[in-house]
Protein 1
Amino acid sequence: MDAALRALVVAAWAFRLPLLAPLVGVSTAVPRQEETRVAGHPATAYVPGRLEQAPYALLLNGATPLGRHHPRLVRLAQGVARAGFRVVVPDLPGLARGEVTWAGVRSTVICARELADEGRVALLGISSGTTLALLAAEEPDLAGRVSVVAGTTCYTDLRDLIRLATTGTYEAEGGELRRYPAGPFLALCVARSVCAGLDEGPGREALAQALASVADDDPDPLARLRHLRLVGLGEEARAALDLLANRDPRRFDDLYAALPAKTQAKVDRLSPIRRASRLRVPVELLVDPLDKYFPLEHALALARASPLARVTVTEALAHADARRSLRAAVELVHVGAFLFRVIRAASVR
């Protein structure tokens, strides 16, 4: 099966395209679905029915309580497997809660190394899972082991994402601050990620307890932090709380500068844009131009920083979900081209 046909299989199955999806269902083998473990993490593997030596794809979910069992993620994994790839979807630390942490990056690297023992592995992601895939691909431990990094809209600069989550603004090219209507769930995910990255201690525990009681659909998830006091609970936690509780764009830079140097280093380490020069494989990003969480500028900045990164802007997606409209149907041409490039790169062992 050539790359163009494989791309059609994935698009038809994942997007449930009329006529084409049923045709794919009868013309490709049903993948064998297995519960397994990879690098010590629970995982689901989707094994193509008619291929003995299929290349591996590591698929990372975004923020969803269902994790690797989310129906649309399962559908995508099945489509990629029907196209001839062995797909593994692991449960990584904090990812289902929207946390991007160094533990998650290291787990991604270890999972990819385990799968890459039999050849190179494609790193595929949805939303924050794409950010993890980018961060893992930048690690020296995976040099020569990754074929391609591909995914949907994600963030590439955690500092700027914290700015957006707390003040409703982001930094555009040239340093201009612009308003952006990000959904409130972003603020909760960002706060969770910041909290998870703090040093262990009473301060982090107090922040974690405050966030634990916040529902995913809370319209103002950081409200409780604005009434929290961390007197005597450590400089790092207090500075992080001040930053997360702030809503004034004019104060953000000063509050960020007040973070301990080690905390700022942690934020940089979780920002793919900071080490984009380390990318040595093709990067394909499929981006919603008006994403409900991540400004388009994050993907475009990565493409400017790395000649290997390519951004496909399409209205066929609403964040990570398929849109159902005439415009979205027309946009599927661009999605098909994106999938063709990803599959062609991922097929090289």
Protein 2
Amino acid sequence: MEQSVITISNDIRYLQAVQAFTKEVARQVGFKSKDIEMILLCLEEAVTNVIEHAFDPDEKDIFQIIIQPSTTGLKIIVKDKGLPYDPNIIPEFKIYSDIEDQTESGLGMFLMRRLMDEVSFQNLGREGKELHLTKYLPVKNITEYHTPEELYPYAPHLADLAQPPEKTQIQIRLMDPSETVEVSRLFYRAYGYTYPIDDIYYPDRFRKLLEDGKILSVVGTNSKGEIVSHAGVKKVSVDAVIGEAGMAATKPDCRGQGIFTQMLNLLNETAKKQGMQGLYGRGVTFHTFSQKTGNTCGYRDCAITLCVLPADRVYKGMGIPKDRISTVYSYLPLVRHEKAAIYPPRHHSAFIEGIYNNLSIDMISLPCDEKNIQLQQQSSFKVDILPNVNMADIKLYAYGRDAIDKLMETMKMLLKRKIDGISLYLDLGQPATAIFCSEFEKLGFFIAGAIPLLYFRNTLILQYLNNISPDYSEIRVYSDFARSMLEYIRERDPNRDL
């Protein structure tokens, strides 16, 4: 089914017609009555918010509802060009024991986040703003396919096995979509429910992502044809030129045989054939295995994001982390990259140049004259809250005169929700990045690194920690370059002495 765009005036009388159309689309996608009612309730909240708050009382205007059905569910985008408004800064809804104290402030956003699977907001500057609401089709969890005995966790470590495993012949190949149940079982037995990509636990949803080309997977099979290992690349869209490599799980008795390296090599080759330009990985710093494997396959380190994963992200056989886990970004160019013409912040210019040298990508620093920077009236950015890891991502697409104020407002909301940290992604192709970086650092952000193609052709990553002081002695990095990055970041981390 193709997407539909409905344009209506800011008159509540049109709501019923929009809901009727959305109801029929949701029914055709495959939603049942209960989920359809949830979708319609959230649509009502979103549309009503626009009508009541985006325009002055006597102002007549139009706005759009974009309905995007897919094989995995339904996305609704409510887009308007009314008054500036960010639902993320609405006070959090609270339930009081005394009914007389109860208010409806924040109730609409509370319902949307409870009833929909994904809720995000994007400020488009002069092009207005968008609220994205996503609902996935209900599908079976992997625990509904097997008995508890079949899902019993693997032995936590090779050392716990009665005898060291013998090396077995493993065949590496592309995964068939029909094998998602077996792969989901592999992940469940290896990680329990701690793996951060939820789709892996829902075989039907996982299969549709494979069939749609949003996930590229390879598996390792033993002599009996059983799947003993998996690795994959996840893309934000079918035509994305960059994807995240990882999604790794291996049976304990098949570890230590170089399987993951072989799978990564096959993923790299396949992604390149499909026209992708680069891949990146995020190796955890709780151990160096994933970092070492990536470096062996040609990935080179370019950023370190601190405390981005909860300590309950269990890594079998490697103990229990004391604190939140950090990650090392590494990047692999699949094609020859053109020279990166960027506007680095002057005080980080040498650091960023070192990153591009490490990636073997030529870089040229463009001069930036603060007096000649053109700013929009309003900034364009997107905020995503990641509840599974209690973090938030902010992508700043265009700088407006309100950039600092809007970022401060958004931070205030996120910190009030007790988000543990924020990643801020800036476009190094915009001269304003060279100037605003210092202003953002005054708010408590600090450098993480840089990477090509992630959100922008060249992306600068800043990070913010909410009263968390990383234990740098527990952060393990593999490469010499990662060690130099970590020291540079530590010196600029305002939380290091908390």
